[in-house]
Amino acid sequence: MRRLLAPIALYLFVLTLFFLKVVLSTHPLIVVSFAAFTVLYLLTLFFGVIDISTKVTDDQDSNAFQTSTIRLLETCPFLLPAFLTASMTLAATLILPPPTIERTIYFLSFFLFSLLAYLAEMVLVVDTMRRRSRIPDKLDQQRLQKAETELVREGGAHSRKKLLLINPVNQSMPGYSGSMNSRLQPLGLGIVAALTPSEFYVKLIDENLESFQYEEADLVGISALTSTVNRAYEIAAEYRKNNVSVVMGGIHASMMPDEALHHVDSVVIGEAESVWQDVTTDFLDGNLRKRYTGVRLPLENMVPPKRELFSSLYPGASVQTSRGCPLNCEFCSVTVFNGGEYRFRPIDEVLDELETIPNRDIFFVDDNLVGYGKHSRQRAKDLFRGMIERHLNKQWVCQASVNFGADEELLLLARESGCSLVLLGLESDDRQELIDMKKEINVQFDYDTILRNINRHGIGVFGAFIFGVETETAKSIWRKAKFICKKRIDVIQTTVLTPLPGTNFFRAAQEEDRLLYTDFPKDWERYNMTEYTYKIKGIGKEEFPSIFMKSVKRIFSKRTLSTKLFRTAIHTRDLRLGVISYIANLEVGRIWYKICSIVEDRLNR
């Protein structure tokens, strides 16, 4: 990335010569004007680099330079520097005394040079990002070749059964999987692969990163969320028509096993570790059962995932240190699936796994890394101390509750061990809404104090908010949007309250006949946490989508995100974190604009 500094260095060098030749010998207002211009120009260049970099990273598009840089109808990244340069040139040439032909030529030359320097920078950025995007592909190819070599050494894949594991993605609505930085390694499938006996050759197809293409297999395993289950059923049908057995697990199949059995041969209900050996044995014996119900095992000696199956395109590695949640929020199915008590992995086992992971960036997928009680918080502190003592040098993100920001010692240890962002389920700024969602723990804390404490320790806040709660009104939507824009929310996640199978909320909405889409399984693709799927008491079906989409566009506007960049850098004293947060928000904003476009098309039909 050092070569990206070359155009900026050349630009500053020419600017210095220009100052010595022209500016210092004329009116002092010209000096001030060009100093201001230089600052504005470099800021514009900075935002342009971020814009084109994230676009190329997301799209992997060979035409990314044309589609992202030369967009004359947009103010960034092309038109704004041209406008700034031209306006400053005209101001210095025509307004400031005394105008001369010689100075006009100098200014126009500098104007053209500035544009060329900007375009050169953009070309280098695109080329660099393309090179970086090709590196993971090569690494994946090398990894695949290594795996194939090992297979030949062991007798070859043809001497064993082939287990194909598939991670499906909703094809009709992008959701957060549309952002590369929001995609997580399919940890559950990695654990299933690690538990699979040696009689099988295992391969993973991950639609987070590649489109599904049919390939031969002896047994297929699919894990699906509610929003992706139709894609899972579609893929399962392809294999079943060729007499290939399909096993489905995951949260949706566990909550709706009878439905799933209409589309697959066998369902694993709950956590798979306790039953996967039975599934594979029964398959080899030709006696695959319809249902396997897992039990929740202690997490001591937990089998780590088979990480070599995960693509190196993922921005970081996922790690799990605990399961379960005692809160049982109305809209969440974690308690039903993983239980209402925390189960912890031993700290040393987690640290040992972290030492084996080459990735520097880590996402702890625990629903709440620090828990709620004194014992849970002490365990988190011990984990952070262990990471410090072992010099793991990881940069990590986690999910936690707002109590994360109320413990000074925990914050110090978290930051020292590498915490850069913490995802907080803030959900709402309204006390009654939080109580209705059974998020009473949030009511116990002052958000401003919590957010300030976290930022003060150099950690960014990844704030998750829910729109469309049962008492939502047009006024509350705008109030929530204003809160997100004004407060110390460094990275933003907005979702629409969605009644998911297995939750108390879904059962209540179903019993009260408030679900808007009930043609199941077809309508499950709408239950993706971005669409309006049930009758809200305080606002109409036609009114909510319109107001919500306007608020989302305000939240993810360039003005809001640019302001947050500088606020994050100032509050955390970390410019790098400000840039990372800006890029993350920019990607999510692009996804929401796509979602808004899709929803508007559906509403207009």
Walk me through what this model shows:
By secondary structure, this protein is an alpha/beta fold. The chain folds into three domains: 2-133, no CATH class; 160-293, Response regulator (Rossmann fold), CATH 3.40.50.2300; 316-551, TIM Barrel (Alpha-Beta Barrel). Helices cover 51% and strands 12% of the residues. It is built from 22 helices and 14 strands. A six-stranded parallel β-sheet has the order 2-1-3-4-5-6, sandwiched between helices. Strand 5, helix 10 (276-284) and strand 6 form a beta-alpha-beta unit. The chain starts with a helix and ends with a helix.
Descriptive terms for the model:
605 residues, alpha/beta, Rossmann fold, 6-stranded parallel beta sheet, 22 helices, globular
Can you give me a brief rundown of this structure?
By secondary structure, this protein is of the alpha/beta class. 51% of the residues lie in helices and 12% in strands.
Question: What is the count of helical runs?
Answer: 22
**Low-pLDDT windows of residues:** 56-79, 132-138
Overall geometry: globular
Give the C-alpha Rg.
Answer: 27 Å
CATH class of the largest domain: Alpha Beta
Number of domains: 3
The CATH superfamily of the largest domain is identified as Aldolase class I
> How does CATH name the architecture of the largest domain?
Alpha-Beta Barrel
According to CATH, the fold-level topology of the largest domain is TIM Barrel
Strand-helix topology:
Blueprint: H1 5-21, H2 28-59, H3 64-68, H4 75-95, H5 101-154, E1 161-167, H6 187-195, E2 200-206, E3 219-223, H7 229-240, E4 245-249, H8 251-255, H9 257-260, E5 266-269, H10 276-284, E6 291-293, E7 317-319, E8 322-323, H11 334-338, E9 343-344, H12 347-356, E10 361-364, H13 374-389, E11 395-400, H14 408-417, E12 419-427, H15 431-436, H16 440-443, H17 447-456, E13 460-467, H18 474-486, E14 491-496, H19 504-511, H20 543-555, H21 558-572, H22 575-604
Parallel strand pairs: 1-2, 1-3, 3-4, 4-5, 5-6, 7-10, 10-11, 11-12, 12-13, 13-14
Antiparallel strand pairs: 8-9
Helix pairs in contact: 1-5, 2-4, 2-5, 2-22, 4-5, 12-13, 13-14, 18-20, 20-22, 21-22
